[in-house]
Write a structure and sequence with these properties.
Blueprint: H1 14-22, H2 26-39, E1 47-51, H3 57-65, E2 70-75, H4 78-91, E3 97-101, E4 113-119, H5 129-138, E5 139-150, H6 156-167, H7 172-184, H8 188-197, E6 204-207, E7 212-218
Parallel strand pairs: 1-2, 1-4, 2-3, 4-5
Antiparallel strand pairs: 5-7, 6-7
Bound molecules: S-adenosylmethionine.
S-adenosylmethionine binds next to helix 3.
Length: 223
């Protein structure tokens, strides 16, 4: 099935950001934490960067799972960051998670991060290399990389099955956004090509659910 890009990269409309923040993504966000545990079996205690953090559910889960971690989380949409800050304040994790309003590609970040995290950002980008270049610029040697995103279905029929299964009871706006995200998502092969173009072939691309792919691995070099 041909890819159809998202109409907008950023989710900067207050209503859109709120609808997204109120949706239940606990199953996929918990899967993200489980994948990181497999990637990094030792207790993580370094500095992590979450790219396209949205309402910060993943940074909050990550900080609860790894109380020694420091997390920088960035997003280009201030409407999302306002909701993210409220959620962080409510969780009492202000000392562990810092938010930054930044637009990718963010190639002037310090090369200091021990872990690079991103969930559901890749399919939003007009140029997917913006994500891979930002990761290449900001990851320390040996950093753990975990990027999870939707996987584009083979056909509109398969897409409709997924929308019914996972958003059948959701408000219309979320059903529409989920379908648009599935159309905009990449295939495993396309992501492998992106990694090759960004000289990040050492990362592995795998399907991790009926609708998700993950890119994971450790970058070369001595930590
Ligand atoms: C679908 S949301 C995912 C949010 C979060 N990672 C999660 O898993 O719930 C995608 C987020 O990426 C942000 N975004 C899209 N393009 C961006 C860019 N070029 N730079 C920074 N943030 C971007 C959007 O504003 C939005 O908050």
């Amino acid at each position: 099935m041909k890819r159809i890009p998202e109409p907008e990269e950023l989710m900067d409309e207050a209503d859109q950001a709120l609808a997204y923040a109120e949706a239940d993504f606990s199953a996929s966000n918990e899967l993200f934490i489980e994948l990181f545990e497999q990637l990094h079996p030792d207790e993580f205690s370094g500095t992590a960067l979450d790219l396209g953090c949205g309402p910060a559910d993943i940074p909050i889960r990550f900080a609860r799972r790894y109380p020694q971690a420091q997390i920088d989380a960035l997003d280009g949409a201030q409407a999302m960051l306002d909701l993210a800050q409220a959620a962080i304040n409510a969780s009492g994790l202000e000392q562990h998670i810092k938010l930054y309003c930044r637009y990718l590609p963010a190639t002037r970040l310090e090369k200091k991060y021990h872990a690079l995290l991103s969930n559901s950002l890749l399919h939003h980008l007009n140029d997917p290399l913006d994500l891979w270049q930002t990761i290449g610029h900001s990851a320390r040697p040996g950093a753990a990389i975990l990027v999870m995103d939707l996987l584009r279905p083979d056909s509109p029929q398969q897409l409709e099955v997924l929308v019914r299964e996972y958003a059948g009871d959701a408000p219309k706006v979320l059903r529409r956004d989920f379908a648009a995200s599935l159309y905009a998502a990449y295939t495993l092969e396309e992501v492998r090509e992106q990694l090759a173009a960004a000289s990040l072939q050492e990362l592995e691309v795998v399907q991790v659910s009926d609708r998700h792919l993950a890119v994971h691995g450790k970058l070369g070099g001595t930590p």
